[in-house]
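Hi, here's the filled form for the chain we discussed.

Project: internal
Contact: R.S.
Residues: 251
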Amino acid sequence: MISSKLKDKTAVIIGGGSWIGKAIAKKYALEGAKVVIAGLTLSKLENTVAEIKQDGGTASCELLDVRNEDHVANFLNKVEQQHNKIDILVNSAAIYPRSTIDNLSLSEWREVIDVNLTGAFIALKYVSVIMKKHSGGKIIFISSVAGEKLGISGFSHYGASKAGMNGLMRAAAVELAKHNINVNCINPGNIINHERFNIDPTEMGQMEKTIPIGRTGKPIDVANLALFLGSNESDFITGQDYIIDGGEVIV
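And the returned structure, exactly as it came back:
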């Protein structure tokens, strides 16, 4: 059933083919948005679009390499031309290979920074130009508690990219506020990605013991927060980091 919190809104979700990005795309479509998802795996993008349409929503998809400035600029301009505006941009594209610092190559470091941080900057740069022309919009970065609160062994490159994203968000929020553009970050904790990882039950139990709420997160938990930040209900909120982790970082 289609609701109406995002009625007549056009939403772009970069990294919308799976996991958190997919949940956000589906939630936005259920709330009436015209959703455009982008990413590197066409089959995943097409599956998400099919699921959205099956539920009565409106969606399309396109392949996108977030590291390619011309590609991103052309993609966002194409969306504007097709839909006359972009109201919401969610950047959920990320990679997170595990490597300890002593084994981390410079090329792997650069790849993570390029995708997670530079890719977010490129999308921010070009969508902000579009949003200024149309008197406002909402930009949401999917960051991580690894960038805001926690140090996690094996993920120094990932944590650095997400900490950089949070800093980028705050500066952008200040610059773009006068244009009625809100910029915020969501910092998820343990949101389990069943598409990529098979979590051992014992490991899952140990993980849950560290979370006061008593369970790991679901992609829909993040999507619900992204809905609020993408809707008119968050018009007076900008420059904020929202931790969504079941209380893990406070214990």
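Let me know if anything looks off before we file it.
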